[in-house]
Write a structure and sequence with these properties.
Order of helices and strands of chain A: HEHEEHEHEEHEHEHEHHEHEHHHEEEEE
Chains: A alpha/beta (about 400), B mainly alpha (about 280), C mainly alpha (about 325)
Oligomer: heterotrimer
Order of helices and strands of chain B: HHHHEEEHHHHEHHH
Number of strands of chain A: 16
Radius of gyration of chain A: 22 Å
Structural class of chain B: mainly alpha
Shape of chain B: globular
CATH class of the largest domain in chain A: Alpha Beta
């Protein structure tokens, strides 16, 4: 027994020593280290791996920040907020200069307090929940990508433009789903549009046939979808199979992208959505980015990669301009800064809530022609920033 | 009325999912936690076959055979030594299967979603009771019915079925009669695996194929199996229908209560009739 | 046995001097918290022989109770931990009372069903209270005796204290008449009943104690991550503890500890070296089940027995 325990202790010690040698644990102090907490497995694996690709490209192109090599350390948050917090803590304890991530809004909200307490900047380029720059905002968190408010604004504009009279909503039964719908509902009611029905489906629902049937029978002329990831595909696929798109106009906020469109199949044509980014967006910076990305990864960049590239670049620009290693100076400089070199044309970081202001893209799913994907998004409207963002909190 | 039809198709899908699981448990006493992974594997293999040949029906026949082979290999080399040991070890073992299969699929097909479509003949829709229902769902109802009848017949009426049932009750006696019990067991496991794969192929056109789809359905499977009665095909059908109808009707009229209803049903079943609502044999509690 | 315990704990106590990396300390703290969970779980699973699939329920409930109290005031940490433990124990009693009407796989499935129900309740209907899937953020680290445990080293020592207590209590329980009775129940329930033990009450007691362990572990976990969410109630959390205990060796004092350490360290190191760590972990589980029926502890014991035999002249 005694021996067994001694051996056990030796094993534990060896194990700890072993884990000390892994690259992830050590963050060299003489480099600018970006700690990335992204989902590389689990439901959002595609999202996380894309974020990683975009960020890695930015880091590779940059090479050095403040005269020292810049590198990214990656930890898999497994699409679980608990793991996000654990990995964020691990990276912070290892001494990273800045945190980057996470994927799902719930995960990002979980790691924000951690970054705040350790006083390390956190760059958010994916999660859209309003609270991140709203009720839960903190001094060290910055978001360079879209938020749900702006996306519902665009959707409401679409409703107005097309003149829909009655809208049915299908949303995921999660805070982000419910909150987005609450905002949209207010806009719709203000415009005098009727709400034909509401259905909240559990995340991971396999079968939307009853809901789809309800929509078809409700007399609505529009279907507003607030789902994410695989649920979007399931819903659109099943809706497409009964040709729901012929009866109602299907649209949503940031729920559909090129990859999802491919997974749905031909029935996706005609669905409208906010496009968080598109490789076809015509700016010189974007063209250069898309070319470099295709060269390195042999695929078209999606929104997660695009925003990751853009956000990381923006932050590195800001850091370079301060010329200092003091993170407080970075925070101060980031506020109010303008990213002239953005993929989307100039973007401005608002000081009051650390939300980036920029254009909004509205798109439609269409058939593509080679070498572009067979099914993809086409940007149909560009909304200027004015009127898209919530007022600065008091 | 259309709600009933939709409920039927939901129930049929659930039955297809659960049939293999309940069979393996009832006849082998093994709780195969990797059942969902085999379902996922079936869908992906079918996807690959359709990509190569463009023929859905071919995939429906061949994919289960391939996956069945995988199941047979796993059973022969790793599960056999464990019969008779605690259920906990089966948990650990089948959990190992889950990870292995997930990794294999990740390596072979990557993290992007894949898409399977209904075969050309079934891509249309029909108007029934004022609702538009896809032909594919009607096919699912028909296919599931046929499959359940076939399973029922094999287990209750054929010699193979009798042998299998006898082996589950008293394997020593069966082997005294000159039958290779080991082979019977492997056969049952392979059958369960093939059923899982079939359900994967059938469900494929309705969902995106993705890593982790195994986890989405595992709880559903267990619910059907418990409510219907472990090892009971008839129970599995009825249990699946019950859950399917509850879901459909619930979604139609009282969406917030669906989960609670189904779980309440599960817990009540376990408390008052743990052998399953529809089980004929009374299992020793 | 007590001497070994003291030696082990001394080594762990001195560890922060040697290991400067806060990331490692965080990791070791996490391991110790899981150990508390697993040690408690083994009382039900290894010692009494009941395969519970729903132990996450007690961990999760404990974590929420802890969070609600300690968010009011970080100095309430001791009270919050006790409350979490009691909550875990109470829920465990309820679950056991319901589930013990069944046996075998049905018992296990019942524990799973109840845990799932709680998971769902926390995620959706009760989201106003629990924050739903997004959980409760901003759970403060304890602040009492003039010490702020935001410092990872201090928190490590605090958790080490709990870990030591957990081991000690487990040691005493196993060797006590209560523990012996539980072992008897596992070996032969009918015989135990005939000899005069109240088997039902013994099982309930084992569950309750195990629930207290789980609740405390939940509290510590919430404190470490400064975050609580339904993941603690998820079936994968229940599954994890079963696997860790099995891997390590059920029914032994150090088995669960070994299991937790190996499981977590494997996950960490493997994921650093290869992206295929998932599959390799699967292979390890399969091999372990087939060739290590008594877990790692069993392997160590037989190694030692082999060495002893070798020594014969």
């Amino acid at each position: 027994m005694k021996f067994a325990v001694s051996l056990a202790r030796a094993l534990v010690g060896a194990a700890i020593l072993l884990s000390q040698q892994t690259v992830h644990a050590q963050a060299p102090k003489d480099a600018f280290v970006i700690g990335g907490v992204v989902p590389l497995s689990g439901a959002y694996a595609l999202l996380g791996t894309s974020m990683q690709k975009g960020a890695d490209l930015a880091v590779e192109q940059r090479g050095k920040v403040l005269g020292k090599p810049v590198k990214a350390l990656w930890e898999d948050s497994e699409t679980k907020p608990q793991t996000s917090v654990q990995k964020a803590n691990k990276l912070l304890a290892g001494g990273v200069s800045v945190l980057f991530g996470d994927g799902a809004s719930g995960q990002t909200l979980a790691i924000m307090p951690v970054a705040d307490q350790r006083k390390v900047p956190l760059i958010v380029t994916t999660s859209a929940a309003d609270q991140i720059t709203g009720s839960a905002r903190n001094k060290y968190t910055f978001r360079t990508s879209n938020l749900a408010f702006m996306e519902t604004r665009m959707a409401a504009e679409y409703v107005k433009k097309v003149g829909l009279k009655s809208v049915y909503v299908v949303a995921v039964d999660q805070p982000v789903g419910r909150d987005t719908w609450a905002t949209m509902k207010a806009s719709l009611t203000a415009m005098g549009v009727k709400v034909a029905g509401e259905d909240f489906a559990a995340i991971g629902s396999q079968d939307y046939s009853v809901i789809i049937d309800k929509v078809a029978k409700s007399g609505a002329d529009g279907l507003f979808i607030v789902t994410t990831g695989a649920d979007t595909i399931t819903l659109l696929k099943q809706a497409g199979q009964v040709k729901l798109g012929n009866k109602v106009k299907i649209f949503g906020t940031g729920f559909l992208d090129d990859d999802a469109a491919m997974a749905v199949g031909p029935d996706v044509v005609g669905v409208k959505t906010v496009a968080r980014y598109h490789f076809s967006y015509d700016t010189p910076t974007n063209k250069a980015f898309v070319e470099a990305y295709r060269k390195k990864y042999d695929e078209w960049p999606n929104a997660y990669a695009g925003h990751a590239f853009d956000g990381i670049n923006w932050f590195m620009d800001v850091v370079e301009k301060t010329g200092s290693w003091d993170s407080e100076k970075w925070v101060a400089a980031f506020e109010g800064s303008t990213h002239t070199n953005s993929l989307f044309g100039p973007r401005q970081m608002r000081a009051c809530d650390h939300q980036a202001l920029g254009v909004g893209l509205w798109a439609e799913a269409v058939k593509g022609t080679a070498p572009q994907p067979a099914l993809m998004l086409k940007v149909t409207d560009t909304f200027p920033p004015a009127g898209l963002f919530p007022d600065c909190p008091k | 009325m259309s709600v009933v039809l939709i409920g039927l198709s939901i129930g049929m899908l659930l039955f297809l999912l659960a049939a293999g699981l309940t069979l393996v448990f009832g006849l082998l006493g093994v709780v195969n936690f990797a059942h969902g992974s085999l379902y996922m594997l079936g869908a992906y293999v079918a996807f690959q076959l359709v990509t190569w040949t463009g023929n859905f029906w071919l995939a429906l026949v061949i994919a289960p055979i391939i996956v069945g082979l995988v199941g047979g290999i796993l059973e022969y080399f790793t599960l056999r030594p464990l019969y008779g040991r605690d259920a906990a070890y089966q948990l650990l073992l089948t959990f190992g299967y889950i990870l292995l299969i997930e990794e294999f699929i990740r390596m072979a097909w990557g993290v992007n979603f894949k898409s399977l479509n209904p075969p050309p003949g079934l891509a249309g829709t029909t108007e029934i009771f004022g609702s538009t229902v896809t032909d594919y769902r009607i096919f699912i109802i028909g296919f599931g019915t046929l499959l359940s009848i076939a399973l029922f017949y094999v287990i209750e009426r054929t010699r193979i079925g009798i042998v299998v049932r006898a082996a589950s009750v008293n394997s020593a006696m069966v082997s005294c009669l000159g039958i290779d019990v080991g082979r019977v067991r492997t056969g049952v496991f392979v059958a369960g695996t093939m059923l899982a794969a079939i359900s994967g192929v059938i469900a494929g056109p309705l969902l995106p194929l993705k890593l982790g789809m195994s986890f989405s359905i595992i709880i559903d499977c267990f619910m059907v199996v418990v409510i219907g009665g472990l090892g009971n095909i008839r129970g599995a059908i009825l249990g699946a229908m019950l859950i399917g109808m509850t879901r459909a009707v619930g979604q139609q009229f009282a969406a917030d209560w669906i989960f609670l209803l189904t779980y309440a049903l599960l817990i009540v079943t376990l408390i008052f009739r743990p052998e399953g609502l529809f089980n004929v044999k009374v299992r020793q509690a | 046995m007590k001497r070994i315990l003291l030696l082990l704990l001394l080594m762990l106590c001195l560890a922060p001097i040697v290991i400067q990396d806060r990331g490692h300390l965080y990791f070791m703290t996490l391991i110790m918290i899981w150990c508390v969970f697993a040690i408690g779980y083994d009382l039900v699973f290894g010692v009494t022989g009941l395969l519970s699939f729903g132990h996450a329920a007690f961990l999760g409930v404990g974590s929420y109770v802890f969070a609600f109290i300690v968010i009011q005031n970080p100095a309430l940490f001791p009270l919050a931990v006790i409350a979490a433990g009691l909550a875990g124990g109470a829920i465990a009693l309820i679950v056991a009372a319901l589930a013990l009407r069944l046996s075998g796989i049905y018992f296990s499935l019942m524990t799973l069903a109840i845990a799932e129900l709680l998971f769902f309740a926390a995620s959706s209907p009760l989201r106003a209270l629990t924050g739903g899937e997004d959980g409760v953020t901003g759970v403060p680290r304890p602040r009492f005796l003039g010490l702020d445990f935001l410092d990872d080293t201090k928190f490590y020592q605090l958790v080490l204290g709990f870990f030591a207590l957990a081991l000690y209590v487990s040691l005493r329980l196993r060797n006590s008449p209560f523990g012996q009775a539980l072992k008897g129940v596992k070996l032969n329930e009918v015989r135990a009943d005939q000899v005069g033990f109240n088997v039902k009450r013994l099982k309930l007691a084992a569950f309750a104690v195990s629930g207290v362990y789980a609740g405390v572990a939940g509290a510590l976990l919430g404190s470490l991550m400064q975050f609580v969410n339904p993941q603690g109630l998820h079936w994968s959390t229940s599954g994890d503890v079963v696997i860790m205990t099995l891997l390590g060796g059920i029914g032994t004092l150090f088995g669960p500890v070994l299991g937790v350490v190996v499981f977590e360290v494997l996950k960490e190191t493997l994921s650093s070296y290869t992206i295929h760590w998932y599959g390799i972990l699967g292979l390890i589980f399969i091999v372990a089940t087939m060739y290590m029926p008594n877990g790692i502890h069993g392997v160590l014991v037989s190694m030692r027995a082999g060495l002893v035999r070798e020594k014969k002249p």
